Hints:
Blueprint: H1 5-12, E1 23-35, E2 43-51, E3 60-64, H2 67-73, E4 81-87, E5 95-100, H3 108-111, H4 117-130, H5 135-146, H6 159-178
Antiparallel strand pairs: 1-2, 1-4, 2-3, 4-5
Amino acid sequence: xxxxxxxxxxxxxxxxxxxxxxxxxxxxxxxxxxxxxxxxxxxxxxxxxxxxxxxxxxxxxxxxxxxxxxxxxxxxxxxxxxxxxxxxxxxxxxxxxxxxxxxxxxxxxxxxxxxxxxxxxxxxxxxxxxxxxxxxxxxxxxxxxxxxxxxxxxxxxxxxxxxxxxxxxxxxxxxxxxxx
Length: 180
């Protein structure tokens, strides 16, 4: 029996909807790929969670068709505690930050989740500076790997790959510096 309305909502909620600025704590219970009910030509992922403050055996579903969220969730094991935050409203402005509780996780700036193209470019520039990767080295990699001339042309689906390359390039440079 629920003690108050907040507990009643938590125990009787079937679908998860995050408002702008809302953060939830949950345990990941798996996923299912469904046909998008608004556009039968597309698919949507229904992620299943137990929410903090909710009976452990009750599950809510979060339907999300974003590939960037799926890339993050693909790496999360069933039973993992997470925090999920939403900022923004509308299709183009919404960003999700998904973090594994109690472990080192990738920040939005390293995953690109919910970032627009300009924010991804800014993040890449910052990562290059932090890791002492020169613009020339980055340019050579982008030209060779994607056949592009500018950071603004990086496909957003390849953002995480570019971030990983920056980290590897920095590590390689550190290893070479230590060889002397």
